[in-house]
Every structure is written in structure tokens, then in C-alpha cells.
Amino acid sequence: MTFGTSGNGTASHLATELFNRKAGTKIVAVHYQGGAVQGMTDLLTGRITLMFNVAAPLVEQVRDKKLKAIAVGQPKRTPIMPDVVTMDEAGMPGFDVGIWIGLLAPAGTAPPSSTNCRSRPTRR
């Protein structure tokens, strides 16, 4: 079996390595340098076996039955696909790979002010 990732050390790679560890499997990683797009193409065509990915862009393929959503990697079901079970419900307790995304800058970056940071977009 093979799994696609959006690159070595990315969230999709680490999620599948956690799956390997918890399930005792050795699914082989296929890393896609340009992100998940090529991986999704290969998943849809059967070149790879599975892939952990962000749910939102996949809803249409799941609804159209081009992909099968097996489980979500968070402790709670996702509102955009409420019928998809959690990994805990699927028999893998303690599997939580929720992704934290933040806006970051170098440590010496000046704090926001009215001259360098706008709280809303301006109209032109």
C-alpha cells in the first residue's frame, strides 16, 4: 500500500506515519513536491492507495463517489461531512491530527499599528 503526502514532514505525512505506528502497518510514503494536487490526481486514478488531506476541497469528490471518506483525524466529526466517522469511532482511539494554522513573522517584526496594519480591506 502507498499513501500520498504533500511533502516530507508535512501534516499529511505525519498523520499517515501516526496511522502506521498505531495500526502497526508500513504503508509507503509517496511525497509530492508541489503539494497535494498531484497526490489527489494519483489517488483518483488509483496510482496510490490512500491519502490524509484537508476535507473542504474534497467534499465534492466524496459526494460524487469519486473518493471514499473513511474517517476524519480529529476527535469530533466535521460539520461539512457529518456522516464520516472519526478515527476513534473507526477503532483507532487517541488519533488526533487536527491542524493549527497561524500567521507568523520573524521575532523582530514591529507590532501592528494603524499605519502598518489595517483591520479591514480598503475600497478603491
Describe the structure.
This protein has 124 residues and is α/β, with parallel strands linked by helices. It has 3 helices and 3 strands. Strands 2-1-3 form a 3-stranded parallel sheet, sandwiched between helices. The termini are far apart. The model has no long low-confidence stretch (mean pLDDT 87).
Question: Keywords, please?
Answer:
8% strand; 3 strands; 124 residues; alpha/beta
Note the topology.
Layout: E1 2-5, H1 11-23, E2 28-31, H2 36-45, E3 50-51, H3 59-63
Parallel strand pairs: 1-2, 1-3
Q: What is the beta-strand fraction?
A: 5-15%
Helix content, binned percent: 10-25%
Strand order of the largest sheet: 2-1-3
**Main sheet: strands, sense, barrel:** 3 strands, parallel
The Rg value, from CA coordinates, equals: 18 Å
> How many helical elements?
3
In short:
With 124 residues, the protein is α/β, with parallel strands linked by helices. It is built from three helices and three strands.
